Amino acid sequence: MAAVARFHILQQSSSVLKPSAISSKFPRQSSSQPFYCNPNFFRNNTHIRKLHLAPSLCANSSPTPENSSANGPNGSIVGDLLDYLNESWTQFHATAEAKRQLVAAGFHLLSENDEWELKPGGRYIFTRNMSCLVAFAIGEKYSVGNGFHVIAAHTDSPCLKLKPKSALSKSNYLMVNVQTYGGGLWHTWFDRDLSVAGRVIVRNGDGSFLHKLVKVKRPLLRVPTLAIHLDRTVNKDGFKPNLETHLNPLLATKLDDVSSVDIKDKNNKDSHHPLLMQILSDELGCEIDDIASIELNICDTQPSCLGGANNEFIFSGRLDNLASSFCALKALVDSSGPKDLSDEHAIRMVALFDNEEVGSDSVQGAGAPTMFQAMRRIIDCLANQCVREGVFERAIRQSFLVSADMAHGVHPNFMEKHEEHHRPELHKGLVIKHNANQRYATSGITAFLFKEVAKIHNLPTQDFVVRNDMGCGSTIGPILASGIGIRTVDCGIPQLSMHSVREICGKEDIDIAYNHFKAFYQTFSSVDQKLNVD
Questions:
Q1: How far apart are CA 490 and CA 8, in angstroms?
Q2: DSSP 3-state assignment of 407?
Q3: Which of 156, 191, 213, 252 could be cross-linked to 91 through a Cys-Cys bond (beta carbons 3.0 to 4.6 Å apart)?
Q4: How confident is the prediction for the chain on average, in pLDDT?
Q5: Residue 421 CB neighbours (<10 A)
Q6: Rg of the Cα trace of the chain?
Q7: For residue 249, what is the DSSP state?
């Protein structure tokens, strides 16, 4: 969901070995364990929700309980989602992992800087800034002027980011100077085991520069709360930290030998703690002075996992909006095989954007014409120099966009925050978002078409509108819909704790969203033909 700042108030990729693959090669030895730690307990007891459990899918080397799910017998993608979340600590890692999976699935890598050669039946992908991605599959029966069927989501989440000069020292502590990104619930970042991840520009031996991703998996940082003995009224008056002075994480105590780390590059030496630069250089396998630039997020190190008495929840950071991004990505891959595209007249597309949480106004955000430029280039390539009048405009009029961003599930402790008749529940399917003031792009027509797809495949849907006495957030839906006039529906997977460092959603809703998105790609062409509005 969009950042609080956007609320309207009324009045390089590399091959990554998946943890699940490692688990399959090196299975755990059996040992005595409590019944609730035994995955067979939940499989063999019919009175408890049956789950397919597998070894934990973690982003670090620390052992965790066996509560993560791999692909189950019913085609569940929950295990793959946990892998993706644990790999994708930042928008850069999320994009790189999506790129890796698409290329592994047979998508051809394009560059926006090169001339494109496309053909019907082809599958293609390109990235921008390694934080924005567009992938598409062209139907075998595509003809110029036919539409695009798009699912759009975003790769970024609220977080803390290092300031350009991050070195900070107070009371003999080495600390990291950070800035807030998006509308996070910042109090949830206190007393968490944190680290850093992001991208680094490294000097190469030949004078060129390399773009590398980095992730320090061990707990490195912590933002400690003030003891209640020194803040006696905190439970009565509320915890109200100053985001400039109270949110800087601890890195280390200031020891004399820390200064022994020698950095010749004066900019890095003055800007960042030598100890932090040494840790980054160790992770990257380079010299400290080879690090020319860094762009790092503060990240929570706790792995994504299943939770709840019946393992029916997903506990994770960055569910908003990597859960939507992955469901869209997986649906495109699984609906774009040769047989799937043989009778398709349209182009199936996924667009993942950065910077949604801060307004989308960036070169890699939905406010840039990235997707529409790609659409025009695709049409130009496939037109074979026989471009007829208004071919691009006609293609847009036949296109349909699903703006997928997480939705607010009803909170059992704060039910009054939802409109009485629009209280989305977990495990009940995708939430279609409505707003009369166009904070969401859904219309009566687009909601009907999207629900009709679900109806054909026996998939549940829910509806959401915000209370009249509350402000309404927004998504990339209205930005893209108004940018070029593409029909759009706003929807999302219901969740709790949105914008917390640790969020919650229902396990079943992941598979429902995946199946709904896949059904959209497979069914929408036939559904759309049955309704003529203009």
A1: 17
A2: strand
A3: 156
A4: 87
A5: 7
A6: 24
A7: P
For 400, what's the count of Cα atoms within 13 Å in the CB-facing half-sphere?
A: 24
pTM over 0.90: no
Residue 385 is predicted with a pLDDT of 63
Of 458, 463, 464, 448, nearest to 524 by C-alpha is 448
Q: CA separation (Å) from 58 to 35, 122, 302? A: 22, 34, 8
Q: Is 351 helix (H, G, I), strand (E, B) or coil?
A: strand
Q: Which residues contact 469 (CB under 8 A, 6 or more apart)?
A: 10
Share of residues in the chain with pLDDT > 70 (%) = 83
The first and second tokens of residue 37, run together, are 């730690």
Cα separation of 45 and 61, whole Å? Answer: 32
Q: What is the DSSP letter of 472?
A: B
Peptide bond into 172 cis (omega under 30): no
Which residue from 95, 75, 62, 73 is spatially nearest to 305, judged by alpha carbons? 62
Residues in the chain: 534
The winner for highest mean pLDDT among 58-62, 235-239, 262-266, 386-390 is 235-239
Question: CB 244: neighbour CB atoms within 10 A?
Answer: 11
pLDDT at 257: 55
Are 166 and 248 contacting, i.e. CB atoms less than 8 angstroms apart?
Answer: no
Q: Which residue has the tokens 């829910």?
A: 462
249: Cβ contacts below 8 Å, ≥ 6 apart? 160, 175, 176, 178, 194, 221, 222, 223, 298
d(CA 100, CA 407): 28
